[in-house]
C-alpha cells in the first residue's frame, strides 16, 4: 500500500499550466487596448507586468516565452510602427520593458534554482526517512505484512510511529509502536527503538528478551540525549510467529503467534468467517522506557489463529481520530463492515475513510499493519523476499 513519492524533476504544476495562457491573454489585451486608445494614454507599463507575473506563477521556460513575446511586441508597437511618437518616448518604453523583462527572468531563474535545491533536499530527506521506515508490504517466509502510514507533519513521510517486520532464524518478528510526542525528538527515539529491534530480532530467541533489548536501546538513547532532557516512552506491540501446523491436523492453524504488549492499542483478529474480535493481552505491560517501574518482565501471550485469519494492528492515531463532533473513530465497526474484503481493498477503504471521517485533519501520526499468513509452509517459499 505505501509507495514512495517521486523525487525527480517536477512537472509543471496545475497553477503554472493554467497561469501561462492567462498571462498571454492579459498581454494581448493590453496591446490591443493600447493600440486602440490615443497616443497620450500609455499602457506599455502594464504590459511590463506580464513577465513579472509569469516569473511568479509559471515555469522558467514559460517565463522566457512570455518575456520574449513582451519584448518583441514592445519593439514593434513602440519602436517600429509609431513614427508619430517622440523618439524619447519610444526609447523609454522599450528600455523600461527591457528592465522588467530582465527582472522577470532573474526572478524565474532564482525560483527555479530554489525549487531544484528543494527537490535535492526532499530526495535526501526521503531516502533518510525510508531507511527508518520501509515501504509496505513486507514479506517473510511466513507473513505478508501490508498497511499504510500517514504522517501528521506536513510534507513528511514518517513521524513518531514506527513499524518493522524481519525474518530471523527463530521465525518472523514484527513490531508496531508509537513514540510519545512529535517532532524530530520523537523520530530520533523511534529510530533508536527500531535499531534495537532489528538487532535483537536476529540474536534473541525469546520475544521477551527481544523486548528487553529494545528497552535497553531506548535507555542508551536517553543517556546520549540526556543533555536535552528528551526522555520519551514508546508504546509497542511485538509479534513472533512460528510455522504452520501439520497439514493433517483436523483443526489446522495457519499461525502460532506470540505477542508482547508494551502498553499499546490492542490489535484485532479478522477470522476467515468474517468475525472480528479484539486480541486482548492477559497482562499488558508498561510502555518501553517505563519498564523499570514494574517488578518483572512483560509476559508474552501465546495465541493460535485459525487458517485464513488476519491480524490488524494500529497506533492510537486511528482509534483516537475524531470527527467534527469529537466522536472517536469506530475502528471495530469498520472492520466488521469490511471483514470480507481482501487486505489491499480493506486498507484502501480504511485510509480513505479516516481522511473522510476527520475531514483531512489528522492530528496524530497513523500506522496500520495487517498480518497475513503466507499460503506456503515455512521453509518452502524459496522465492519469498524480505522487505
TrEMBL record:
EC top class, as a word: hydrolase
Keyword Transmembrane in record: yes
EC numbers: 3.1.3.16
Domain of life according to the entry: Bacteria
Keywords (A to Z) from UniProt: Hydrolase, Membrane, Transmembrane, Transmembrane helix
Molecular function GO labels: protein serine/threonine phosphatase activity
Pfam families: SpoIIE
PPM-type phosphatase domain location: 143-373
SMART domains: PP2C_SIG (SM00331)
Transmembrane segments: 12-33, 39-57, 64-81, 87-110
Matching PANTHER family: STAGE II SPORULATION PROTEIN E, STAGE II SPORULATION PROTEIN E-RELATED
Protein name from the UniProt record: PP2C family protein-serine/threonine phosphatase
